[in-house]
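In this supplementary section we document a worked example of the pipeline. Step one takes a protein sequence of length 475 as its only input; no multiple sequence alignment statistics are reported here. Step two produces a three-dimensional model, which step three serialises into structure tokens for compact storage. The input and output of this example are shown verbatim.
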Amino acid sequence: MRVTVLAAVKAMLRGRRTGSSFLAELRSVLRERDFRRLFATRLISQTGDGIFTAGLGSYVFFNTTSFPNPASAAAAFAVLYLPYSLIGPFAGVFIDRWSRRQILVWSALLRTAFVVLTAALVGSGRLGVPLYAGVLLVLGVNRFFLSSLSAALPHVVAQDKLVMANSVSPTAGGIMAAVGGIAGLGVHVATGGGRAGSAITLLVGGGCYLLASLVARTMPRALLGPAREPGKRPPGRVLGEFALVLTGLAAGARYVLRRRGPAATLGATGGNRFLYGILFLMSILLYRNYFYRSAGANIALSHYTVLVIASALGYACAALITPRLTKVLSKPAWITVLLAAGAVISGPLGATFNQVAFLIIGFGLNLVGQGIAICATTVLQEEVDDEYRGRVFSFYDMTFNITFVAGAALSAAFMPVTGRSAAIIGLVAVGYAVAAAAFWVAGRLPSPEGGDGQPPSSGAGGAPSPSPSAQRSSS
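The serialised model returned by step three reads:
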């Protein structure tokens, strides 16, 4: 183990051109004119997503007139994250029927209208069912938008560049969402905070959606599909297609449970997100109700913005170091190391309830989470047969969001309103350690009866060799 770790450190030290691969891939796909327009649509829209989330979060969690309690914060998480999980598997029924270019144009316009409605509710001081209904409309439509971007990508990129485009496009979109979130927090503080500041921030995000719609409109209507081969039967009735989706998800569940690699990877993803959900809820309560309770909401939010920046840096660092380290360590080994690191980071540092310590935790756990996500995506691409890959990735998306909300919801029953709880910090640290051990052991158990019975053939470093068609269009 010592030799392996030393080799990993040496690989990191040898890396002089960490971002060159990403930039080279970006230049390659940006030569495609239609890809540039689709890419711009994504970047503008996801910047709006970050601004919208910042505006909503600042109002819900850093309200000038009230203090969030654990239950209300967990409910807000459910509204923010569950639509992606519940709507996602069914969005494809319509995306494979309607013009994807039109979906991009009209869904962005609809989101702009729903954002205006949500901003009006925020400006009036509403915090309840009407506000959450408006937010659900914005996020539900956004699911169609993001899925349509993924489905449209093969229509604007040559097949030999598709893997590059799949890597570059969502990565850059995630970066712009983080930039938008930081910018949105800045807008909120600059406009004086409170209801007015949150409403203005939401409207700025809505302006990004309007611009994204205009950019999408520059593409020909038939460019993005869906393509219909001559003589091919049209899609069946919508209700019948929904039933097929449910049947397909059940078949995907049976498939993944028979294969130890994908099943263990989904378990590691869910375990990390469950524990991260607990700490995310705790961080909001600490900054608003403990560290800066008497200083006011705007001061608390400005300091929480520093935590957001530290977390974004951890997210970016994971994308830089994970590809290098997985050339030395196998992906399961790196996932195990990351989960164990989660225990080391969260336990000793979290118990101090010191702001500097929580900045380190934010950086470290986002590096851990994104490193696991990169490895998990790759493992599923490599080890899942192409005919099941879409359904398994639906499970992956559902696992990613539902376990996050579940962690926040479960901990809300025990978390004090200030967020300060040494017992919960200890349980989270133990949880990371148990998840690391369980994942490592699960990877060494034989596949259940009825699975493929054999692990995939391994390439260098013990990593499974990908099939030629191992591609995924991330949303």
